[in-house]
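Class prep. Write one:
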Amino acid sequence: MLWVLLILLVIVVAAIFFVFSSYNGLVRARNRVEEAWAQIDVQLKKRYDLIPNLVETVKGYASHEKETLEAVISARNAGMNASSPAEQANAENQITGALKSLFAVTEAYPDLKANTSFLHLQETLTGVEDKIAYSRQYYNDSVNKYNTKTEVFPGVLIAGAFNFNKREYFEAEGDARGPVQVEF
């Protein structure tokens, strides 16, 4: 009789340990996703802060390129107002396309291309873009690990019981995956 109680106690302790361990693993994975999203947010804010300075610099040289400049500002505003990873990804795709168009327009202005302020802004923006790309990759990797933990057995049991929901990836869509076509 003592052996039966001891075996039952070991099974109960093992089950409790399993639930705690699985739950804590899911919490760590969820926190990693949130931290990765925060890093994307930091880099996007840097980008948003650079865009008005870049637009103002270009305005001085290419004021008649109003549509391109307005598209950049409009895309920036959409990005700042996005609330989900899918909305943010869509807005960032618009910003990337608008900036590609802006840089294509600047090719027609040799004085602008030689302007030190513009060159510094362009270089800084390039650095931020690289950090955004890395942050997106880290975020998507974190989401992949989290989603896998919530979908595979036995984690799916704990995830369902404690309401750990699947997360969205930060993905480029449509035209953002290819080159932007600019016509003059």
